[in-house]
């Protein structure tokens, strides 16, 4: 029983990483109808920013870890802002061109990171408590998994509160339904686009900072690997649905962990593809996906 619980919580940790990347992609698509293939590179760049903060310490303290997470979040936001202003905004209304631009941007960022720090994984030093375990029902759960799950839970609650309780959240939801009408009311939809894209980048940045706590290291290609699964999360959960992304992230993360442990290592990736195909055949719009809806 303790082993099963350990596998489940590890899967929840993996699902939390998927969600942090997929949530930003989902909000961006819901409002802007842009699928950003550069978000994986945003995650990797933010992970390297975290690594640059922590690499000077063999055993960094908790304040340094918090600083590294803040730097990674800000890095994701800044890179996303530049991408939106320089690439996405000039190509507004040209969906194919926007998609290709984000693909190119992602490739350039990965090449720059590989050229600067090499293609290999760089180990990220962590505070001692983060490498320890906490016993839950007899299962030794890594504190890094608990931290990841906890922060992902905070992000879920924060997104829901912002979308449902704040003026800006209402503007975003209205923009999803009819951006032309919102613009006619005198609301600056262009600013909302920028805010949403930056927020998505910051979520990817948080994922990059936390990826090192899950995998123990960061590489230029980590984000691209996670991006594939995050897009699968979007399709299964429903494009533009935050709640759908949350459910799909949990299902995929737990399914991968259970299948890899109890069946065959690596079979979890095959199971994810099977779930994707089944979703497309049975419910092409995804679990909670509905046209012109965000949540």
Automatic annotation (TrEMBL):
Domain of life: Bacteria
Gene Ontology cellular component annotations, sorted alphabetically: plasma membrane
Keyword entries, A-Z: Amino-acid transport, Cell membrane, Membrane, Transmembrane, Transmembrane helix, Transport
InterPro entries attached to this UniProt entry: ABC_transp_permease, BCAA_transport_permease
Annotated TM spans: 6-27, 34-54, 66-87, 99-117, 146-163, 193-215, 227-255, 261-282
GO molecular function per UniProt: transmembrane transporter activity
Membrane topology label: Multi-pass membrane protein
Subcellular location: Cell membrane
GO biological process: amino acid transport
Family label: Belongs to the binding-protein-dependent transport system permease family. LivHM subfamily.
Protein name: Branched-chain amino acid ABC transporter permease
Species this chain originates from: Acrocarpospora pleiomorpha
């Amino acid at each position: 029983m303790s082993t099963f619980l350990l596998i489940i919580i590890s899967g929840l940790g993996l699902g939390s990483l998927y969600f942090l990347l997929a949530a930003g992609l989902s909000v961006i698509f819901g409002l802007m109808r842009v699928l950003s293939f550069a978000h994986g590179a945003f995650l990797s760049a933010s992970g390297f920013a975290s690594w640059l903060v922590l690499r000077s310490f063999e055993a960094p303290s908790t304040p340094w870890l918090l600083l590294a997470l803040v730097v990674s979040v800000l890095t994701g936001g800044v890179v996303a802002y530049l991408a939106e202003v320089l690439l996405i905004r000039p190509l507004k209304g040209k969906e194919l061109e926007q998609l290709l631009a984000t693909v190119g941007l992602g490739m350039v960022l990965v090449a720059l990171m590989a050229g600067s720090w090499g293609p290999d994984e760089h180990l990220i030093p962590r505070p001692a408590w983060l490498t320890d375990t906490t016993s839950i029902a007899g299962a030794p759960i890594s504190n890094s998994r608990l931290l990841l799950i906890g922060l992902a839970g905070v992000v879920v609650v924060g997104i829901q509160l912002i979308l449902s309780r704040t003026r800006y959240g209402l503007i975003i939801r209205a923009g999803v339904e009819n951006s032309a009408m919102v613009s006619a009311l005198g609301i600056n939809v262009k600013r909302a686009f920028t805010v949403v894209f930056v927020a998505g980048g910051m979520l990817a940045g948080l994922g990059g900072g936390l990826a090192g706590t899950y995998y123990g290291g960061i590489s230029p290609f980590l984000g691209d690997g996670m991006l594939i699964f995050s897009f699968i999360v979007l399709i299964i959960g429903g494009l533009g649905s935050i709640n759908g992304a949350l459910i799909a992230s949990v299902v995929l993360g737990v399914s991968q962990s259970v299948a890899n442990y109890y069946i065959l290592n690596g079979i979890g990736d095959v199971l994810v593809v099977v779930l994707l195909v089944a979703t497309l055949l049975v419910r092409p719009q995804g679990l909670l996906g509905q046209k012109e809806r965000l949540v």
